Amino acid sequence: MFITLILFTCFVSLITVYFLTLKSRYSYFRVRSIPGPSPTFFFGHFRTIWSTKFYSRQLQEWTRKFGSIYGLFEGTRPLYIVSDVDFLQQVFVHQFSLFSSHRVSFLYQLSKSVHLISAGPSRWRQQRHAINPAFSAAKLKLMAPLIDQCIESLMKKLFKMNNENKEFNIYELYQRLTMDVICHCAFGIDTDMQNDVDNDLMTKAAVIFKQDIERMPLSKLSYLMPWSTSLLAQFAHSQIALFHCLHKIAPTIFPDLVEKIPRLWLISKVQEVIDVRTIDTSTTKRVDLLQTMLDAAATRHEDNTDDKKLSNDEIKGNVFLFMVAGFDTTSTMLGYCTYVLATQPDIQKKLQAEVDDQHEKELDYDTVTKMEYMELFLREVHRMYPPSVATITRVCEQTTTVCGHTIEKGSIIQPDIFTIHYNSDLWGPEDPNQFIPERHSTERHPLALLAFGVGPRSCIGMRFALMEIKMTLAHILRHYTVLPGEHLQEGFQLNEAFVIQPNAINIKLNKR
Ligand code: HEM
Question: Of the given ranges (117-131, 171-185, 219-233), which has the lowest mean pLDDT?
Answer without folding.
Answer: 219-233
